[in-house]
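Protein modeling request. Please complete all fields; requests missing the sequence field cannot be processed.
Requester role: graduate student
Desired output: 3D structure, token encoding
Chains: 1
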Amino acid sequence: MGKAKDVAAIKRVIDDWVAAVNAGDAVAGASLFTDDGILMLPNEPSVIGKEAIRSHLQAHFDECGGAGAPRETDALYQP
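Delivered output (79 residues):
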């Protein structure tokens, strides 16, 4: 794949993640992970597995009123 295509693919996944989080869409967010994927959040235990990630995201969105927009301090947030 070449470096430019690799970078573009990574940026698409990040854009898809940000769109899912901004929309409060746990299903779309979890779909970006493999079945054995790991969501690693600061100061929290790792969340392992696509269904566990979906459930964790949904609980977060429910608590936040529907969405959890990334902040400039988030590791992958780069406008």
